[in-house]
Amino acid sequence: MSVFVPNLCRKKAWEITRADLDRLGVEGLILDVDNTLTRHNHPDVDEKITAWLEEMKGCGVKMAVLSNNSAARVAPFAAKLGLAFEAGAFKPMTGGYHRAAKLLGLSVEKTAVVGDQIFTDIAGGNRAGAKSILVEPFEMERHWGFRLKRWLERPVLRRIQKR
């Protein structure tokens, strides 16, 4: 399987169920922030995400935030959600995924990465040995670098949709 192909796809994170996690054989989630849990650089969380996080916690799912963003951005966001975090992760490098799994007290193989970007979240999680769950972004970013990545993701997304 290609490192760019997720184990599971959902429209939004709140559609991921405990049954999905059981099928993947995972006990914890490593969550991206921007465009996965909230809009890009936005401090607030959709109430559907908040309710889903509470539901997952209630099911015993361990969760932590992993972001390429700075601690100044990630720390208050994670604190608001009551989650541990790892900032400045340099995704798709694998070190951040291993550190996030350690925060959860799990091996990386017992975690699933939830993110909106194939070339960072999904590729990095797969390379680290985690399962991966791709969600659709809340909104398309305006910065040219993000727009280029989204354009490059298109062929991979078409291949995933055919499966």
Mean pLDDT over the full residue set: 91
State the name of the first-level CATH class.
Alpha Beta
Give me the CATH superfamily: HAD superfamily/HAD-like
Query: How would you write the strand order of the largest sheet?
Result: 1-6-5-2-3-4
Radius of gyration: 14 Å
**Main beta-sheet strand count, sense and barrel state:** 6 strands, parallel
Determine the structural class based on helices, strands and strand pairing.
alpha/beta
* Uncertain stretches of 5 or more adjacent residues: none
Q: How many angstroms separate the termini?
A: 12 Å
Task: Write down the CATH topology.
Answer: Rossmann fold
Count of alpha/pi helices:
6
Number of domain units:
1
Helix content: 40-55%
Order of helices and strands: EHEHEHEHEHEH
Word description of this protein:
- The chain is of the alpha/beta class and 163 residues long.
- It has a single domain, classed as 3-Layer(aba) Sandwich (Rossmann fold).
- The protein is 43% helix and 15% strand.
- The chain has 6 helices and 6 strands, in the order βαβαβαβαβαβα.
- It has a 6-stranded parallel sheet with strand order 1-6-5-2-3-4, with helices on both faces.
